Structures are given as structure tokens and as C-alpha cells.
Amino acid sequence: MIGTELHFKDKNITIYNCYCPPGKDHALHAMNISDQCIVVGDFNCHSPSWGYENQDASGEEVDDWQINMSLLLLNSPEDPPTFHSRSWMTTSTPDLAFATELSKQGK
Length: 107
Description:
Layout: E1 2-7, E2 12-19, E3 37-42, H1 57-68, E4 72-73, E5 83-85, E6 90-92, E7 95-99, H2 101-105
């Protein structure tokens, strides 16, 4: 995970980019979610919230974290997949984007 803070005249926006390898614990607790925050990355988890039929334990963890941090999921279940496996001939959506309400509205 990497994070940076952008400073503008009257506001600061924190941006995190995460990679969570399959089967590993998420480092969600390590992020300091501020009033103006965007979190993007490859979360390698499943939830109907972003288009999977079933939810796995990691997907439940990310769903709970999103709710607890008052983040908006910017992905939609109707969005096209973000990963195409040529080896397995499958598609998936490991890449997710979250934002605080103010950063989504651009205020």
C-alpha cells in the first residue's frame, strides 16, 4: 500500500493505492481515512456489491470496512470486469475504488 496527500488552497485529499494478494490479510486498518480520501487498488476479493455472485471472507471484510469508514464504493455491479485472464479465459473485478462523499462530489 502507498499513500500520498495532495495539498490544495483550501483542502487536502489523501489518496491510497493498495494491492492485496489473494489469500492474504488486507491492510485496511493501516489507512488513516480522512474527510477527503480516495482509496483504489486490487483487493482480490468477491462481493455482490461489485458484481460477483457470491461473497468471500475477504469481500465481507472489505464491505464492512467500507461501511465503518463511511466510504462510497465507486464501482457498480454493472461495470465491465477490470481483469481478463487469457490462461483461464475468465474475467473478474479485483480492482475497486472508494471515496469519502466529499471527494466524490469534488467539493
